[in-house]
Amino acid sequence: MRVGAIGLQHFHAHEMIAGLRGVPDVELVAIAEADDKTWQEQGARYGLRRYADYLEMLESEKIEAVALVNARAERARVACECLDLGVSVLSDKPVCMDLNELAALRQAEAHSSAAIFLYLAERYNPPVITLLDLVRQGTLGRVVSFTAFRPHKLNRDSRPEWFWKRETYGGILVDLTIHDVDVFRQATGVEVEEVYAIHANVSTGEHPGFEDIGHMILRGYDGVVGVFRADWLTPVGEPCHGDCRYFVVGDRGWAEVRTVGGLAEQTGGSVRVTTSTSSPVHAPLITPKTTIFDDFALAAGGDEPAISAHDIFRASELVLLGRESADLGVPVQGGRDDDRLRRA
């Protein structure tokens, strides 16, 4: 499979390139990056042909799939163009910046023979795989409460200009909480009835269009609740980039999850489980059987996607609704509505 990269606007591009290069029968043949400085700093190292025009790359190189890490404000449009051309897309998140773009993506995917994947790396994280396996086994019973913490270091001096503006960044809820919303949906299996969120800027007054903390609540049917906090407030003195955790409560037990990158990163994270019939134990972590890159290649080749387009679009929709709720200061209905928001 001939693969190209479109955009080098985030370090995830290098993770995707390295990951795809490790998949048998996948050949990375070219990179499209229009910005000269970005190319010199990020792209020249690969020794591949460079294109300023990604459409020229797709045609000239007979590209079958792309890693998409271009400017966020252009990402959905480019993803739609690729799908329309039958080119499969592995996109960095967010794949869309508003509900209109989401609607366009849904339509493009529905009419395309190609696959769309989102870089939801938590799906392949051993502590998360272990948690979801415990849920499937019924160890926790019916999950009724899911709380997620996703703190990050700001590292403000290293951030590009686009990071500080809503129209080019997307907002903290759209950027960070999508991972946790996706895991929440997998752990509970419920549809969301109502979304309520708050975001704020408490430490970067020099960038008024930025939010450095956000809270969101998803209320599902039958009393299931998801609570999410994301922030760029991890202290400089903290040795890890962010101590990300889940607290998952069922009617038969609960679990505390620390994912890789938290305080337990030297041990690869942990899952502590307590049930109504057992004392606390640390569950053995389950190693993923595959990678997101292998699964993307299989989907691009016509296999059933390991991460469905519905899951990608629904998680994207919920974080966009969360951002709108925070902007409006009111809850919004969580049911699918591509054309407008409805006040709850």
Please tell me about this protein's structure.
With 344 residues, the chain is α/β, with parallel strands linked by helices. It has eleven helices and 15 strands. The chain has helices spanning 12-21, 36-43, 54-60, 72-84, 99-110, 126-137, 166-169, 172-176, 178-188, 292-300, 309-328; strands spanning 2-6, 27-32, 49-51, 65-68, 88-91, 116-118, 143-151, 192-200, 213-220, 225-231, 245-250, 253-258, 270-275, 278-282, 332-333. The strands form two sheets. Strands 14-13-12-11-7-10-9-8-15 form a nine-stranded mixed sheet. It has a six-stranded parallel sheet with strand order 3-2-1-4-5-6, sandwiched between helices.
**Domains counted in the coordinates: how many?**
2
Q: What is the topology, as strand order, of the major beta sheet?
A: 14-13-12-11-7-10-9-8-15
Average of pLDDT: 93
Give the count of helical stretches: 11
State the assembly state of the protein chains. single chain
Percent helix range: 25-40%
Question: Would you tell me which CATH topology of the largest domain applies?
Answer: Dihydrodipicolinate Reductase, domain 2
User: Major sheet, described briefly?
Assistant: 9 strands, mixed
Structural class: alpha/beta
Order of helices and strands: EHEHEHEHEHEHEHHHEEEEEEEHHE
What's the CATH C level of the largest domain? Alpha Beta
